[in-house]
Fold this sequence. Notes:
Blueprint: E1 23-28, E2 31-37, H1 44-50, E3 68-75, H2 88-92, E4 95-97, E5 104-110
The structure holds FE2/S2 (inorganic) cluster (FES).
Amino acid sequence: MSAGTTGLDLDAPKPDAKEPNPVIRFLKGAELLGQCAVNPGETIVDHAEACGIRLPTNCTSGTCGTCMVSLILGEVPLPETLPPGLDDFLVEEGARLGCIGLPVGDVDIDIRPPI
Ligand code: FES
């Protein structure tokens, strides 16, 4: 028997490319610690607090690197000039600074720095 069409080939609903309500998830390795809706203009640290997760911070201005996390999936755009708390090597490894990083769309963050 072949798996041919039956003539009742209805248009299947096609999922939209963009989720209407983006979500940020916080992980530690494979363990999901929490997730919440992305609020544009709020930092990774703000989102973590909304999820009940406390990320360590110090300067809160991108200088010290205390809040460094790893971007696993999605977009957290970088400033044109990297802040003192980041360098090119760390960025290549997925590093972002929680105190200044603004997630865009669905994002997965490992709360640990990449290195
Ligand atoms: S707390 Fe210092 S770089 Fe984020």
